[in-house]
Amino acid sequence: MGKTATMKLIELMILKDDIDLVLEFLGKRGNFQFQDLPKENIHNTQNPSGEIFQKVLDAKNYLGIGEIDSYSPDSKNPTKEDFDLASKILEEIEDLKSNEMATLEEEKKVKDAYQEALAFANLKVSYSELEHLSFLSMRIGKIDPSVFEELKFACGERAVIVPLGEDKTRILAASSKKGRFALDTELKRFGFVGLEIPSDFKGIPDDVLDSLKKQCSEVEKNVSELKLEKENYKNQHKDEIIRLLGNFSIGKQIHDIKEKLEATQLVYRITGWIPATDSDVVMKDLDELTEGRVAIRGYDPKEVPSVSDGHEKVPVKLKHGKFVSSFERMIFSYGSPVYGTIDPTPFVAFFFTLLFGIMFGDLGQGLVFVIVGILLTKHWIPFFKSWHKFGPIFIAIGCSSSIMGLLTGEFFCNEHILEPVGKFLTGLFVGKENAFAPILHMMPSADTVGNMFMFFLFTIGVGFVINSVGLIINIINNFILKQYGKAIFGKTGICGTVFFWYVIVMVIRIFAFGASIAIYDWIVIGITLLGVFFAEPLERLVEGHKPIFENGLFSALIQGVVELLEVISSYLSNSVSFLRVGAFALAHAVLSYIIFTMSNLIPIFIGKLAVLIIGNAIVIVLEGMIVAIQVIRLQYYEFFSKFFTETGKEFIPFKFIYNEKI
User: Fold this and answer.
1) DSSP label at 550?
2) Separation of alpha carbons 129 and 72, rounded Å
3) How far apart are CA 626 and CA 584, in angstroms?
4) For residue 60, what are the CA distances in angstroms to 55, 93, 280, 305?
């Protein structure tokens, strides 16, 4: 059983001229965690790289360059040449912005003038002649075109509303002299703005309209040319801008870290944790990088005073292959193991894969998970880019589901396709004449009650193994941490574990072999429960703490009763909880049967196919999620609870992260 990775604390004394170089090296390596950094910057000085980064980011967004996911391999702390290039690009983009704003304003002004001219193009008599009509009161002005119909409805038969031009931004409203006050009230309510019309105005001459139309065409051409210029500039400088963003992002983070470090006028001091397997290489590379201008000291965790006195926890790093490492987040989402203890990730990977396969058995649906896992691993599903690290999990549960599906004879909810395979496999053991399919019959019936009962016992057996592994891990961890009292006594120590195992063996002996409870059974159970009952005082006795009864004898007796009730109820519930594994396997089989039966009720082939596709999609997505949640629940509450009585501190190394929101 593997332990968490061995760590070392290293102390670096770095000259001021080398600090940027060293921080860049550590950030790119991504295997160094600072020991103690204040949350806020100490000096709070300006961050030139951060300011340029934000400006270049604004320029990138202005040009319409797409989102950047990560750094390029060549990204580094920005140089003077980078600052100069950034200033040049920003100045050119500022000129582009100014030209664009001026051109768009000109376009708006010319188009507004043209629309207004069109509105009055057909007015061939002077406005004064219309205004002096004895029976009419007229208003000419602007409104929001979206309220034109509403205004027209509100005026009803009391007034006539006539649009001037096609866009309805200008209108002529006419009513009787008597109704002019009501008209003015309605116009005001809809945001009408009157226009001053000269009394001798007789419309817009055609040559003026032609001139304005020509101006509109010219300004539209200018806008198009400007857009083309902007697109050309984007294509020409895109790579430079992306490179600058990467460099200045790194520069910003280096500056932020540097502001938090201990420093004198000439020297910076850095302390941090690093995996012991990497320490020699990192020290050698740092020495070469600074040409010997760095002082380096390394310490084992037991040599660090803050660790020895319990004020600091050594960060925990788990080291696995690609498959097992994809389960690490499940561990850390619950809590980090204590440094130096057993790494539970391989057990979690195995148990998760096993339980999922038992509850979700279908060869076809399992192959879908395998395909999804391969696509995620190959980064061929960009929409789920944050799920790529879970690709191996999908492949594993897909293989497990496929094996279970082969045993239950299910292929995309069809129970008949795999019958020849089932008969061939069973025929290898019982002969062709006695061959049968499926190998494991999950559908409940009068003939399969015994098999179903055995299957549920099998799931409880799986639960017994998982619970036992958790208990063994807890005992070993406590011995590693020299907490001998906890390792021996208590419900998850040796006493509780022996009680659990002995009761299981006794039950099997009674029901399977017809044995009766003997006196030695009561002796073993009594001794183990006594260890659980007096767990706390016995732990204090073994570990040399005084007084033995910290809160008095009566309190210890009350606590002992509670411990007895908890050990019996918890082990019972922990075991029974695994019945859900069999229940979900049964539910999956029944749901598959329903889908297959529904498809057979439809006479049209396309209808059959649609039911099968939709039904299988629902099972894969919804039931897959439910089963995954149940497996995680079993891991958390039945497995982790046995040994996660104390949590450690996750190793989170300093590494550069590209984030446009920083």
Assistant:
1) T
2) 74
3) 9
4) 9, 10, 41, 49
**Structure tokens of 455?**
């299957």
Which amino acid is residue 65, in one-letter code?
Answer: I
**Beta bridge mates, 171:** 141, 163
Contact indicator for 56, 91 with CB cutoff of 8 Å: no
The phi-psi region of residue 624 (left if phi > 0; otherwise alpha if psi is between -120 and 50; otherwise beta) is: alpha
Instruction: Give yes or no for a contact between 159 and 174, defined as CB atoms under 8 angstroms apart.
Output: yes
d(CA 627, CA 372): 17
Evaluate the CA torsion angle 90, 96, 101, 102 in order and state its sign: positive
**Residues of the chain by 3-state class (helix, strand, coil), percent to 5:** 65, 10, 25
Say which DSSP state 137 is in: E
Residues 500-547 pLDDT 10s: 999 999 999 998 888 888 899 999 999 999 999 998 888 888 888 888
Q: Which residue has the higher pLDDT, 59 or 207?
A: 59
pTM across the whole model: 0.79
Q: Quick one: pLDDT at residue 121?
A: 56
Task: Return the structure tokens found at 308.
Answer: 């020895």
Nearest of 248, 200, 246 to residue 78 by alpha carbon = 248
Structure tokens at 225: 């040319």
- State yes or no: pLDDT of 204 exceeds 50: no
- Token couple for 18: 């080398």
Q: How many CB atoms lie within 10 A of CB 401?
A: 31
Q: Write out the H or E segment, with its range, that includes residue 223.
A: helix 206-258
Distances 624 to 63, 348, 352, 594, 618 between C-alpha atoms, Å? 43, 18, 13, 17, 9
438-443 — which CB contacts under 8 Å span 24+ positions? 438/407, 438/408, 438/409, 438/410, 439/406, 439/407, 439/408, 439/409, 440/407, 440/408, 440/409, 441/408, 442/361, 442/408, 442/585, 442/586, 442/588, 442/589, 443/415, 443/589, 443/590, 443/593
Distance (Å) of CA 321 to CA 28, 61, 150, 499, 588: 21, 39, 69, 37, 32
Looking at residue 211, its amino acid is S
Take residue 434 and report the two structure tokens written for it: 């006695």
Please name the residue that has the structure tokens 């049967």. 593
Question: At 121, is the secondary structure helix, strand, or coil?
Answer: coil
CA 378 to chain centre: 19
Name which of 556, 549, 505, 506 is nearest 533 in CA terms.
556
Confidence grade of residue 168 (pLDDT, cut at 50, 70, 90): confident
Q: Which residue from 122, 119, 111, 116 is spatially nearest to 213, judged by alpha carbons?
A: 111
Q: Is the pLDDT of residue 23 over 90?
A: yes
* Distance, CA of 49 to CA of 46 (rounded, Å): 9
How many alpha carbons lie under 13 Å from residue 225 in its C-beta half-sphere?
A: 8
383 contacts 389 by C-beta, under 8 angstroms: no
Distance spanning both ends of the chain, measured CA to CA? 41
For residues 252 and 42, give the distance between their C-alpha atoms in angstroms, rounded to a whole number: 15
- Cα–Cα distances (Å) from 111 to 44, 101, 171, 201, 638, in that order, read 51, 15, 18, 21, 73
